[in-house]
Amino acid sequence: MKNAIIILLAIILFSPAISQEIKTHSVYFNTASFQPDAAAMRILDSVAAYCKKNNANVESLTGYCDSVGTTERNQVLSEKRADAVKSVLMQKGIQLNGIQKKGKGETLEFTGNDFHKNRRVDIVTNKPEEKKVSVLEEKIIKAEVGDLIRLDNISFIGGTPIPLPTSQPVMDELLQVMNDNPTLEISNEGHICCSQSDEENLSGQRAKAIYDFLLIKGVSAERMSYKGFGHTRPLTEERNAREQQMNRRVEIRVVKK
């Protein structure tokens, strides 16, 4: 139980944030107007093209006004500006379901020659990181059902089934492969070195640690299994530390693709 808690904490602490690119695009309006003029339409054309080219999503639309006119009138005008921008983007084929859209009324963020920039709508877009095929995924794509694939650079705290933080990139890579290939089914197979005895089933516990990581991250248990093989399938004669490390491993067997 103690090991399971430590493994869970390690998963939470070392899981990486999702990479993305957030940008703000500003569309400007004439005094007292909520209709985009020619310059505003060119910006909206550019935003729509950016979203389509980069598979970016519109996260929010926020309308603003300058301080000319009453507070109540400017609140309504800022909302109409946000509505107008939403309408144009939808006409250009941009999906805007569930976005945050609001008018914030007057703002004095800009003064002097930049006073006109207070009359605007800010469009916040989110561009996800481009997907790259990993080395592990390439191996799985080429593998046949029944093939074994070694998870390189998976290491554990000595004598325990707790993965070291340096193992996290490989575990994340395996998780991504499982998410990107929803029909893939695997068996995690653990091995130890340097001892003919595995009475505590350390090899099985280490295989289960990888299984538990994937399970916690949302991979269905029906797509995975785990098993320990102790020291019954060594790859080397363990004549040095490097050969010992090669035997102390976790592999995945492709069960179904």
TrEMBL record:
Gene Ontology cellular component terms for the protein in this record: cell outer membrane
Keyword field: Cell outer membrane, Membrane
Alphabetical list of InterPro entries matching this protein: Bact_OuterMem_StrucFunc (IPR050330), OMP_bac (IPR006664), OmpA-like (IPR006665), OmpA-like_sf (IPR036737)
Taxonomic lineage: unclassified sequences, metagenomes, ecological metagenomes
Main subcellular localisation: membrane
Domain OmpA-like as annotated: residue spans: 16-129, 143-257
Protein name from the UniProt record: OmpA-like domain-containing protein
Organism for this UniProt entry: bioreactor metagenome
CDD domains: OmpA_C-like
Compartment(s) where it occurs, according to its Swiss-Prot or TrEMBL record: Cell outer membrane
Transmembrane residue ranges: none
